[in-house]
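Dear colleague,

Thank you for sharing your sequence with our group. We've completed the structure prediction you requested, and as agreed, I am returning the results in plain text so they can be pasted directly into your records. Please verify that the sequence below matches your submission; if there's any discrepancy, let me know and we will rerun it promptly.
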Amino acid sequence: MKRFTTLLFCSIIAATQVYGQFQDIQPAPGTYFMEHEVSAIYSTARQTEIWSEDFSNGIPADWENSEMNGIASFEYRGPATNPDIYIGSRGSCIPEGSQGSDPIDSETWANGFVIFDSNYWDDNIGPCSTGFGTGPSPAPHLAMLTTPSIDLSAETDVMVMFHQFYKQWPNNADAYIEYSVNGGEWTTLYTVTVAVGNATPADQLVVINISEVAGGAEDFKLRYTFEGSYYYWMIDDLVLFQPATNDMVIMSSTYGDFDVFDQSLNTGFENMEYTMYADEMTPLLQFHADVINAGAVTQNGVTLNVEVVNNATSEVVYSASSAPANMASQAQSTLTVPNFQMPSTMGEFSLNMTLTQDQEDENPDNNFASHSFNINDVMYARDHRETEGIYIPGSIFINTAYEIGNMFLITADDIQAHSVSVGIGLGSTPGSEVYGAIYKLNLMELGASTLLAQTSNVDVYYEALNNFGENKTMVIEFDEPVTLQKDSAYLVVAGAPGGGSQIKFATSGETPAFSSWLRFMPNQWFYMIQHPMVRVNFGEVVGIDEQVDHNAVVYQNYPNPFDNSTQINFSIEKAAPVSLLIRDCLGRTVDEINMGTLPVGSHNYLFERGDLAPGLYTYTLTLNKRSITNAMVVRE
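Please find the predicted structure tokens below.
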């Protein structure tokens, strides 16, 4: 099954033309199973914690949860609730085929969070086509979630920190925090601010210096208030902590400047970050770091310092610093360093960013950020080069054929694509088919995008499946090289004809909106929030080899996903003690089965779901000190 068509040149499309088109596109429905990393500022706050609540046991009984209509209120999402932690808003205006919006991406989202879901309370018959005011408690809403009294009488300097995920209906809702001291009046402390109709990041961390209003108070309370109509506000990991005096923090950093809406750009896909560059397309590095003064006092001479180092030789290829700045307590800023054009020297490079200031920083560990990339002769990649997540389509699309991939900008003359490399995630069924393809994406009408070339279908084999932290790819070759034009952008995808029940793709690293795409066949388009591990190769590349010398074979459980039970089949070549270990997506053991010594031959085990929450689990068969791991999915 191969198609090859004449190559088209990339059209120039102004950002103002595509903005309206993009506004109608939603994030891909489904679940990204990922291991979460704790942020530096969160770890620092935990070291000097005064009081906290992570909602691991629901909304505590000593919190006040109220709403003006007496019906709608803040809700708890937990591992065993319905809906559970994988669902944010459950009301209308959610992507077609999805059972809910994405949840908050807080540090401890897996043990629960709270949400005011104005979507659901106003109109729980979605998506957005049945009219408003048909839900359990029609808007406008006035919902309030109030902490118990917190004793800060022994504290002088106090910070409050929490994670939030807020989406706003245009000009129709407000979300804000108030405080009360010693039973006094409520005063506004903080108001969530987003562009009209947009949302905060799903992992937005808010830090506020409340020393002046809270320091020394015997009775201090915070109140989270949602007022108006649509969409939702999710909150988690509320911490009051004693700040360091001097503490600058790098919150995020980049070496690209991607902006699909920049009208000065040719295609809109210039300035994206890559992690593997072909030596014919070395990057212009553009250094940015978002920083915050998490200390209690103004920091002077705050400077971002950058070094690019050749890992093989330890040579510093580039070194520069930003102009020094003064930053007040809790001030946030984006610091930049002059751009640098990388030479075509092949090798692995580290890009190190360090934050300094005139004062001595009390937590220097959070003043550093590092990136890595390589320059090679054949491969172009945007993912982080190891599996950080596994994408599973939403339940309505689970059996629909789909394609998933990344945009790539070509900056060399007439370079030829020979193959596509793709990372397949645990939970995929060996023997299922995948293919690679290259498109010229039509941003004005996604359904009119042009297929340039497609490989034949190839079978996935067990050795190619990626667990977290692994970097195994299958290389799928085109029958003929595909010539790509300079200064043109292309969508390179991997396809799963059998749908998400058979193939789950590995993902790695957060991807900017509209730069990585998913299409459920024939023409339902969504953008990804994690890079699919899909790469394009300009020469011969060797993928993971299929091995056949196992003394045991573990087959994909069936059915998968499953509701109540699933069968795990395996075979062994010699008698041995056998055990089966079941872990959740955070690596916690949820069940352990000791099967005793089993004879040579085929065996099966019927695994009962029991009280397991919906989600991704791994099962590991161990015999003769050899372990084989696969994945299974419990349905919602």
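Summary note from our side: The chain has four helices and 45 strands.

Kind regards,
the structure core
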